[in-house]
Write a structure and sequence with these properties.
Elements: E1 2-7, H1 11-22, E2 26-31, H2 34-41, E3 49-52, H3 61-70, E4 79-83, H4 88-96, E5 101-104, H5 109-118
Parallel strand pairs: 1-2, 1-3, 3-4, 4-5
Length: about 120
């Protein structure tokens, strides 16, 4: 089973996205803080996918995305940004930093599946 990390300060969103991803055979782990997710990356137990919110306290999602893309061990890790932010500038910035897709909350199962298929991984 593939593993996905959902990084969002909203526990309800972690649960909702986790439910959607479980429908396409992902096991999920939620992180309410980008710093926690960054620390988890250090353990070497990488997920197959990261679904990442932008606005979070302390460390935001763009900072975590940039951190992931700077590390050669993680630069190919698929990252889907999932945010309520509809700013074209933030969408473009996310893609420039290396996000595989940018989805606006609430995303449907179909939108998530299509983003995964277009990204760096294959759902099998």
């Amino acid at each position: 089973m593939k593993r996905a990390w959902i990084v969002d300060d909203d526990t309800g969103m972690i649960e909702a996205v986790g439910l959607l991803l479980s429908l396409i055979d992902f096991e999920t782990q939620g992180y309410q803080d980008a710093r926690q997710a960054a620390e988890a990356l250090q353990t070497g137990q990488l997920p197959d996918l990261v679904v990442l919110d932008i606005h979070m306290p302390e460390v935001n999602g763009l900072d975590l995305l940039e951190y992931i893309r700077r590390n050669p061990d993680w630069e190919r890790l698929p990252v889907i940004m999932l945010s309520s932010e509809t700013s074209i500038e933030l969408m473009e910035r996310s893609l420039q930093l290396g996000a595989d897709a940018y989805l606006v909350k609430p995303a449907s199962l179909d939108e998530l599946e299509q983003a995964i298929k277009r990204g760096r991984m294959n759902t099998g």
